[in-house]
Design brief:
The protein is 31% helix and 25% strand. A six-stranded mixed β-sheet has the order 6-7-8-3-9-10, sandwiched between helices. A four-stranded antiparallel β-sheet has the order 2-1-4-5. The longest helix is centred in the middle third of the chain and has 18 residues. The C terminus is likely disordered.
Length: 296
């Protein structure tokens, strides 16, 4: 049975709203409000939902880039929820992130080779002349030439920059990689190349992915299981075949109906939801068109 790499239980992240000269608390944003899931080695969990539902906050909180308000995070069986910075440092190597914007996530003052080598030097994994050879191997693994190690981010295309980001994430040989919409800023043809690269790396290295996206077509391609988020909560959580064949939650149905069909002759039923999207500051309690109850 594959190892359970990540186990998240009842994770919450609430942000206080402060107003006035004294910055007194005037409310709370319930960005993540009781999320639970597991990811095994070699598995991809797709986390989908509309903008503002809390997807990226979940990813950053799991990595402890944002401190959780409540709940627990277990990495390979170890509870990392309350570890301090020095205690967490060894576990940082086991979990990495690929950011959405491949340009702003790279330091323009550093060469591509130095960007990939930085985590190796910070964690003392390799040193001396072996650093450059390790970086060259990582470049070749993600489809870049070793001659490009001395080039700077502005000299690469968008897809190549994201490959640098993937190489940097792989540098410390992690068990878990969080992809925060890693292909949404790329052209469609480049998206497919990067997704296929990530899938090949997963098969080769047994990586666990938490893949965050609002694009259901992309999530269907790469994921094994899918969790649908709405207002900080997971409202549907199943394997991808079940989700696309028989979605149980009305919100999931609406997400599926919003996916464009590349055939003008295909007509699908339209079910327009009335009303406004509720605010995570005061989530609705009753059943409104946008406060949908969980059916499965």
């Amino acid at each position: 049975m594959p190892e359970t790499v990540l186990e998240v239980c009842d994770l919450k992240k609430h942000f206080p709203i402060r107003k006035g000269l004294l910055q007194r608390a005037a409310g709370t944003v319930f960005a993540v409000d009781g999320v639970s899931f597991t990811i095994q080695a070699g598995e991809t969990l797709g986390l989908v939902g509309e903008s503002g539902c809390g997807k990226s906050t979940v990813g950053r909180t799991v990595l402890r880039l944002i401190e959780p308000t409540a709940g627990s995070i277990h990495l390979s069986g170890k509870n990392i929820t309350t570890l301090n910075k020095s205690e967490l440092r060894p576990y940082r190597r086991q979990m990495q992130i690929i950011f959405q914007d491949p340009f702003s996530s790279l330091d323009p003052r550093m060469s591509a080779g130095d960007i990939v080598a930085e985590p190796l030097r910070v964690h003392g994994v390799v040193s001396g002349k072996s650093v450059r050879e390790t970086v060259a191997t990582l470049f070749e693994r993600v489809g870049l030439r070793r001659e490009q190690m001395d080039s700077y981010p502005h000299q690469f295309s968008g897809g190549q920059r994201q490959r640098i980001g993937i190489a940097r994430a792989l540098a410390l040989q992690p068990k878990l990689i969080v992809g925060d919409e890693p292909v949404s800023a790329l052209d469609v043809s480049i998206q497919a190349q990067v997704l296929n690269l990530m899938m090949d790396l997963q098969k080769e290295l047994g990586l666990a992915y938490l893949f965050i996206s609002h694009n259901l077509a992309v999530v269907e391609h790469i994921s094994h299981r899918i969790a649908v988020m709405y207002l900080g909560r997971i409202v549907e959580y199943t394997d991808k075949h079940t989700l696309f064949a028989r979605a149980l939650h009305p919100y999931t149905e609406q997400l599926l109906l919003a996916v464009p069909v590349p055939d003008p002759r295909v007509k699908r039923p339209k079910r327009v939801l009335q009303g406004d999207v509720p605010s995570p500051i005061s989530p609705p309690r009753g059943a409104t068109p946008y406060s949908l109850s969980l059916r499965g």
